[in-house]
Amino acid sequence: MNRDETIPNTVLMVDDDPTVRLLAQGVLPGQGLMVEVAADGERGVVEFERLRPDIVLLDVDLPGMDGFETCRRIRALPGGADVPVVMITGMDDFESIERAYEAGATDFSSKPINWTLLAHRIRYIIRSSTILCQLKQSQARLAQAQRIARLGYWSWDPLSDAVDCSAEACVVLGLEAGTDPANLNELLSHVLPEQGEELRRALRRTAEEGGALDLECRLKAPTGKRRIVQFRVEARAPGERPDGSVTGTVQDVTKRHQAEAKIRRLAYYDMLTGLPNRALFNELLGRAIHAARRHGRHLSVLCIDLDNFKRINDGLGHSAGDALVKTVAKRLKESVRRADAVGRVASGVELARLGGDEFTVLITDLDKPEDAGRVARRILGEVSRPLTLEGREVSMTASIGIATFPGDGDSVEELLKNADTAMYHVKKRGKNAYQFYSETMNAKALYRLTLETELRKAVENDEFEVHFQPLVDVRGGRVVAAEALLRWHSPTLGQVSPAEFIPAAEESSLILPIGHWVLRAACTQALAWQRPGAAPVRVCVNLSSLQLESPDLVERVRDTLQETGLDPSLLELEITETTMMRDVEHNIGTLLELRKLGITFSVDDFGTGYSSLSYLKRLPIDTVKIDRSFVRGLEQQQEDDTAIVSAIIALGHSMGLHIVAEGVETVGQLEFLARAGCDRVQGYLLGRPMPASAFTALLQEWRPARWAHLSSGTADTPAGRGAHGVDAGPTAF
Predict the structure, then answer these.
(1) Which backbone phi and psi does 290 adopt, to 5 degrees?
(2) How many C-beta atoms lie closer than 10 Å to residue 434's C-beta?
(3) Other Cβ atoms closer than 10 A to 85
(4) Distance of CA 354 to the CA centre of its chain
(5) 9-144: in CATH 3.40.50.2300
(6) Rounded to the nearest 5°, which phi and psi values hold at 503?
């Protein structure tokens, strides 16, 4: 019962004596009370429903329906059970008092009435009733919160072994509803035996010494399902506990562990093949280099790229491409683990998928560097065996580059780069072969040098252009944001893919002036899109790792916002998982400073990096963007992709984050994301990256009716064009 204390409490006086009613109306207002009256029980019930008073003063001896029946009627009304009812009568016999309380009276007062004393009594009863209502509300909210959080409380007396626990604690511990465990053993009866004994010892030690306890245990419920529960105790020293008992909580953390396991798998393993991903492979290679350096041994890195994979992917579709990748991964596993292929040349082999159609193999503890060629020949033979896809027999080959430690590099980056260089050398020479790295393979390095030179000219000559791709709100069908994407048409090199020039810009640090230019251009354009009476459109700008590490980033962003006049709430900065995790503590500090400006943040390509939940909780982010690699499989209802996308959406929402799905290309993907509760979508289905003028036209033409037409699955979207027929080239950075 939350009320404005400046408003007087309302008293409903039900009495057939007009003198009593007049006295009540004359005396009680002087005591800060507002009085309404009724002359009989029937009228009293009507007035109660109308007024909802804070207290009822009810005469027992009423004409027609007496006070006892009137009290019962009031108690039966909605909200009537919580309002205090004081019975007033000249009868003071025990039977009348007993009948009053049986009818639901809160208190009993005799006539003649002492009005001053009654006023004090009324205030006291109202105050007590208010506190009681607040307590009930608090208990109800607590019980609801415990049910939602799967959290229960319990206490244990180590002397008598008696336990007391909440209903939710029994549910969490797998006990039957209504169970009242008598002792600690009964309370912990479903905890696995070895862990149960450890928990009992820890509880006894905590009871004897005081302090805190935080312990997770596994339990097997009667249903056969295994769950993980977390016990937490904070106990004072025995002499400081009045009753000697230990109090704690127990929470079901099974879903949290499952979510963390999924995120760990997303972080370190490729979801299509189950192989280690780039992040894990880099860690394994780093450790292997350290061991090889210490023991004076060789190791080799094989970079494997499937030949003409794009032709198969484009011709037979993404599902066929995925099936091909899975088949090749299986063959590679068999190939590198056969004893006759590896056992005589090395002691350890690791296989990973770096992405797309690119795999790597790490061979450790080699006797001779040339022995890696035997493994490469075996791989080429396995990959080239014909296979059937979509009812067609398909032939596949691979190109393999080999770099060896220490001759070809002594770091993770150098070995991978040189193996990649050797692999591209094979591609240029005709494919379906392997090649050891040599220093003469510098074509790629020369092109990169040319690219860097032209990039510097591009910065000076203002050759860049920002394109924008729409982000659409799933529920409202409104364009709510635009992602700014950089494009470059070089007078010398022609149209250069962001996949080529962005890495070159990062390596040369040119990404700093380029990134600042993109930020200013995006903010300027976003301001032009804001129109009176129209919903605001946010602009999303990618931050590179070098920008995030730059000491003047906060100042540059602040200056850009001030100079362009854009409302900070309309700017969202996107950071990839990998970028965020390069220097977590520094990056968190930078984001917190930027947050003070009023801007928002999103984590891009979620699920492809290696962020942990512990860091994710600390980041001041507002949005998580699901990578397109997971969205791709939603059309075919691929179990892994649907489970991962659903898990990311649920996890993000549980942390209060907005969820954006990237790479939405089909109505089927859109429909699944809508059902799963995704907040926003982005992809070719809604619109390709386009120049600012085209995006402005899109904003003016976009109507919710078009969105309904699109999301209902009836849209006729031409191949290669967006939802509005805009074709602005490939997506990238």
Answers:
(1) -60, -45
(2) 22
(3) 26
(4) 25
(5) yes
(6) -60, -40
Task: Give the helix ranges, DSSP H, for 112-231.
Answer: 115-149, 167-172, 184-187, 193-209
470: its two tokens: 């729409």
In angstroms, the CA 454 to CA 470 distance is: 30
State residue 718's pLDDT score. 34
The pLDDT of residue 237: 60
End-to-end CA distance of the chain: 55
Q: Select from 328, 317, 313, 312 the least CA-distant residue to 394.
A: 312
Residues 354-377: what's their mean pLDDT?
A: 88
Tokens of 4: 């404005």
pLDDT by residue (tens digit) across 386-403? 888 878 888 889 999 999
Distance between CA atoms of residues 203 and 206, nearest Å: 5
Tell me what pLDDT residue 629 has. Answer: 86
pTM of this structure: 0.44
Beta-carbon contacts of residue 343 (< 8 Å; ≥ 6 apart): none
- CA 195, CA 398: separation in Å to the nearest integer? 51
Band of residue 168 on the pLDDT scale cut at 50, 70, 90? confident
- Residue 129 makes CB contacts below 8 A (sequence gap 6+) with 1, 54, 55, 82, 83, 84, 106
Report whether 622 contacts 600 (CB < 8 A). Answer: yes
Cα-flanking dihedrals φ and ψ of residue 114, to 5°? Answer: -90, 100
* CATH architecture, range 150-252: 2-Layer Sandwich (3.30)
Residue 79 confidence class, pLDDT cut points 50, 70, 90: confident
Q: Which residue has the tokens 């029937």?
A: 42
**CATH level 3 topology of 262-441:** Alpha-Beta Plaits (3.30.70)
Residue with tokens 């039977």: 95
Contacts (Cβ under 8 Å, ≥6 apart) of 394: 312, 316, 324, 386, 387, 388
From the list 648, 639, 646, 594, the residue with the least C-alpha distance to 621 is 594
Using alpha carbons only, give the angle 410, 412, 416 rounded to the nearest 5 degrees: 100
Q: In terms of Cα–Cα distance, which of 617, 714, 697 is closest to 656?
A: 617
Pick the CATH number of 465-711 from 3.40.309.10, 3.40.50.300, 3.20.20.450, 3.20.20.70: 3.20.20.450
pLDDT tens-place string over residues 170-214: 888 888 766 778 788 888 888 888 888 888 888 888 888 878 888
Domain spans of the chain, in order of start: 9-144, 150-252, 262-441, 465-711
Closest by Cα among 540, 515, 487, 518 to 680: 540
662 vs 605: CA distance, rounded Å: 8
CB 488 within 8 Å of CB 458: yes
Is the pLDDT reported for residue 599 higher than 90?
yes
Could you tell me the two tokens for 310?
């794009």
Whose CA is closest to 390, among 321, 480, 302?
Answer: 321
Phi, psi of 483 (to 5 degrees): -90, 130
Q: What is the mean pLDDT of residues 708-716?
A: 55
Equal CATH topology for 9-144 and 465-711: no
Q: How far apart are CA 395 and CA 324, in angstroms?
A: 10
Amino acid at site 388? T
Cα separation, 491 vs 494, in Å, equals 6
